[in-house]
Amino acid sequence: MAIRIVRENGDEILRKKSREVEVVDDRIRELLDDMVETLHSYNGVGLAGPQIGILKRIVVIDLYDDKGPIKLVNPRIVKQKGEQEVEEGCLSFPNQFAKIIRPAEVIIEALNEKGKKIKIKGEGLLAQAISHEIDHLDGILFVDKIIPGTLEYVSPDSNKDESK
Ligand code: NI
Questions:
Q1: Distance CA 118, CA 113 (A)
Q2: Where are the domains of the chain?
Q3: What distance in angstroms lies between residue 34's CA and the mean position of ligand 1's atoms?
Q4: pLDDT at 162
Q5: Does domain 12-153 correspond to CATH entry 3.30.450.20?
Q6: Is 133 considered catalytic here?
């Protein structure tokens, strides 16, 4: 496993559309493992292929709960319900946060790391993270969707309340 460099705002690859994975093979599994390691090294909640310079429809999410990291290949939202207003950031936009509307609930279909078809229902933070990461696969960034006037720059060594 290896920690990959996370591409940041301004890198054109973040605006490109990712391609479907045709076969979930060892190379894809290695990428997914690297993405989990990278995600953990940044204490992030989610990471998508383009963020490490790979235009493939692969995503990892970890809410640091008992489910452990979730690895998704070719994830697709098949149903979504409701709305939630959430505070959101992105590893490609260090120290930036904004309010955004995300679906309250999503149902997705994807392949797991074994290439098996899975269906996952996500609510709350999981719905938010899934929606954010699938956006990345289509070149859509959270800053495209923020509620105007809510973008905040937070210095990494101060807590958010102090920075307001
Ligand atoms: Ni992101």
A1: 10
A2: 12-153
A3: 16
A4: 47
A5: no
A6: yes
